[in-house]
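Risk register update: the risk of archive-format incompatibility is retired. Evidence:
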Amino acid sequence: MNFTRDEKVDILLIAISTISVIASFVLSLDYIAWIAVILCGIPIFKECIEGLVTEFDIKADLLVTIAIIASIIIGEVFAAGEIATIMAIGGFLEEYTVNKTHGRIKELVNMTPQVATRIRNGVEEKIPVEKVHVGDILKVLPGESIPTDGILVKGETSIDQSTLTGESIPVDKKENDDVYSGTINLYGSFTMRTTKVSKDSSLQKLIKLVESSKPENAKIVRQADKWATLIVVIAFTAAILTYLFTFEIIRSVTILVVFCPCALVLATPTAIMAAIGNLTKYGILVKDGESIEELAKVDELVFDKTGTLTYGEPKVVKVISDHPNEMMYLLASLESQSEHPIAKAIANHYNNTNLAEVNNFKMHIGKGITGTIKDLKIIAGNKMLLELEQIEINDEEDSKNGEITIYVVKNNKYLGKILLADTIRDESKRTIINLKRLRIKTTLLTGDNEKTANHIAKQLKIRNVKSNCLPEDKTNYIKEEQLLSHKVAMIGDGINDAPSLKKANVGIAMGSIGSDVSVEAANIALINDNIEDIPQLIGIARKTIRTINISIAFALILNVTAMGLAILGALNPIEGALIHNIGSVVVIIYSSTLMKYKISKKDYKKSEKLGITKHLNKSIT
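Archived output:
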């Protein structure tokens, strides 16, 4: 195990205190236990006083402090030392476990590159990464971290992107591929052109999300803290009443020890942090604990289409021609002169570098392109371009599903047409099926026309679909659903989705391809853009709330039972301290199981059987 300097000091103090307590017991010399009282008791006193003075924070430290002081007053110094030591051990284990869980997330911060190799006028120079500007040419050697986001301009390599995406298999990169800050170049050296400065890179975006990932702002955490304060008051009252009825100070001291609400206070933050740590392995970053709590209650998931359910870029889906090889050769040659996304899609589909030379190339904005190939005039575009060129074609068939149609003409002779469309992501169908198994209503809101929207929805078996949506239409839909008592999550990737992401109970952004605005507006970011992880996200949110409820119930039952035994005189302060810390450790261990939780067929079957019931969606608070 790797311990920090502060943790090593704590271990040393606890070890000395433990030895002093054992020596006090073996030698029957109570005064030796004062070492434990001083080393382990004083920090507890300090936290108690600081909490009372700064925030009037009545918590477990107050009960422990009173118990230690009461033990000393009645002459039980050994008991005081024992309580202080056991509480210190329990406190160390609690803090270490939480820090370890949170530390796994914050490992990203240590991945930040500090130096970059810039090439300027053919000369290489090492510079701080903060001095890298957009457009700089950088060289990255094997084994180095990529300094900032950019585009590979020369060379080929494989890159370990696990820090960002959680993907264990290296990703091959070639010219014009995107590369990201904090990922590791495994093999060949390459040069890249930067597209973002260091502070705006993908890694820094993740770090900002990580730094804001705190469980303390969840409603369930705040409610548990209120309960803890109430329990402290109850314990203090019970201790006084027990003394007044029995005149046995030992019983009162034991009540104060066993009824410390440490397990109750720990139940929520440890579970939430374990859940957040689990999700980072899937490339899912959660901003705060409240998002986990809200997501567990979600019963409707609203999808944007472009870039979320689909890839967000056109692809050739059909070629219609009596001479397809000739048509595609001429069309790809002509389109190779254009930088338009449709032109790139056609060139990628043809996938042949042996293209013809094009002369007299001309773009007709919103209509298409024209050019000359071997003295043949080639026209590629929509019907408006054909009308402009005074060419008539006998094609009454309209695209059935809203595809983009490109007509191809050679020397005024119609050769055929190709259809392009934004294609559905491979994982979209599986995601929708699994969400339905979790009893989540799925809705598609898109700015596309009705024909395209219905075609996509039909393929994915999404029944609720709204087309021709402006940003305000999406926001209004979410408002209407919320008025009907629905808990709505929204997932999108574009800047136009930001208002809806903000309005939804939980906003989920496509973190890699998503705009910075949408990521900032969302509560959760899918860094690897894999929507197939959404069922895991919802599953662990529900599992987290169940875990918290069970832990709280266990803590309350344990505390009440132990208090009853203390009132009856069946427990002494030392035994009470042991029971108290055993309860805390059990809660921590149970919460830590969330780190390895993965949604299973059993979870789907349970949801299918029960639906979205109150016990899944409401916390014990």
